[in-house]
Amino acid sequence: MAAVHALYRRDEIIGRGNFGVVYKGYSFADKRVVAIKVLNLDTAEDEVKDVRREVALLSQLKQGDAQNIVRYHGSHLVGSRLWIIMDYCAGGSVRTLQLAMGSIEERFSMLIVREALVGLSYIHRAGIIHRDIKAANILITNEGSVQLCDFGVAVQISANYPKRSTIVGTPYWMAPEVITEGATYNYKADIWSLGITVYEMSTGQPPYADQDGMTALFLIPRKRPPRLDGAAYSQLLKEFLALCLNERPEERPGADDLLKTRFIRASKGVPTSALTELIVRYQAWKDKG
After folding, report:
1. 229: annotated active-site residue
2. What is the rounded distance in angstroms from the CA atom of residue 45 to the CA atom of residue 47?
3. What is the tally of structural domains in the chain?
């Protein structure tokens, strides 16, 4: 334990993931701020397996040229707790930044979605389904770069095991095929969740947010897919949302196809540094109390 504490200092809590608490920390060796996710291994065996899977997936992503994925720096056992060391994204999550303005303007949301699609394209090519895409799991750095985080329920698929059937995720963002009993799903479930995230950024909340989670799980596979109506939303945004929220997963485009849509192409040439305006707005809102 002393050895780990000699390497890192653990500071205040900055978030909570599926299986642990995330702290702001400091790496004495690198002399920089990091994020430290602390997971309790003194828990149910199934949850320990989930922790091991998360670490294995993060290690796999660390080996490659992962784009727009929070960088993993290693893990250390401290008693019955596992410290996972990752990049610190000082801007916070999209969900947190959204608190200052309720919804996020299209000129920002298209940049966030564009960069999230780059990250999804990478993990899907690596055979990984994230299974919990939402605004709270998309982080922004102080420089405006976008990073996917929280792989606590992510899963690996392969040629021999190309689909999954476990009901996993956060209810409001879950695809119909994930919820439907007896159905299987693949990486297209992440595309649905991204569509719900677009809806969340545009309106301030995911569909059925006024219902409890179990009611949402009942309604999602039985109701028509959500849409954005009215002049407040551009036709490009409405088209993009409809593509993501196609109830037939086999007809739902993949990340690479969505990167070619008119909504995403409209952000061509716009740097992610434009997203720093969201951070400035949030800090101003927070300073006002």
Report:
1. no
2. 5
3. 2
